[in-house]
Amino acid sequence: MRVVNLMKHITLSTIVDLYIATTLPRLTIADVGCSSGPNSLSPTKEIIESVGKACRRLDRPSPEFMVSLNNLPANNFNSMFLGLHEFYKKLNRGSQSVFKEGVPGFFYWRLFPIDSLDFIHFSFSLHWLSEVPKDLFDENGKCINKGNIYISLMSPPSVAKAYEKQFEEDFNLFLRLRSVELALGGWMVLITAGRGGSCWWGNSIMFLWDVLAQAFSIMVSLVIKFI
Ligand SMILES: C[S@@+](CC[C@H](N)C(=O)[O-])C[C@H]1O[C@@H](n2cnc3c(N)ncnc32)[C@H](O)[C@@H]1O
């Protein structure tokens, strides 16, 4: 959560720049891979407040907002919208025109109509791949990353290559899909985790996957013991 808060100024300043650069009466915005639960409305609230401040500073009328919140189909969309009443109460007591919709779907699918969005933002969701990389399995179908659930210090280099290849394919597909949905002159902000430097393993987050993999191994061995 801390890292999300540290990075959100990028999204907020970009949408303000977009608003200043255009004279759109309505901003259509998508939060793709939004958070779940009542928190999912927070980024939208902050976007609207930031644009509202810019409107007052520039003495311009506030645009209308059409906001689409995307998450996986299994996400609990009811819990996402539970905070709507509070959201509208806080936001200028309902005087601002903000329309919302939930859009269930995988972001490796088409999600929105052609040329329909002025602004798309992603925050810490793009690291989810579309599928387990096929190259993680040898010709006999055996996993080459035994005992691990991601790239670990113990993984052979081909594991890192398999994930890299899958990410490249997914990211290409993702960009192609969004380029169709973004209106001419629309902007997009992608915030995602990455590695500093060329070391494929050296990243503090990787340590967490190792610990999780160990916990899974222990759980599986306990289950096997009892069957
Ligand atoms: C780490 S959370 C980030 C949430 C939020 N964007 C934030 O910055 O707090 C990642 C979200 O992406 C969603 N997600 C993962 N893969 C997805 C996919 N293929 N399509 C749509 N949503 C996805 C997850 O359900 C989860 O809610």
TrEMBL record:
Q: Which residues does UniProt assign to the signal peptide?
A: none
Q: Entry's InterPro entries?
A: MeTrfase_7, SAM-dependent_MTases_sf
GO terms (molecular function) for this protein are: methyltransferase activity
Enumerate the Gene3D superfamilies for this protein: Vaccinia Virus protein VP39
Q: What is this protein called?
A: Jasmonate O-methyltransferase
Query: Lineage from the top down?
Result: Eukaryota, Viridiplantae, Streptophyta, Embryophyta, Tracheophyta
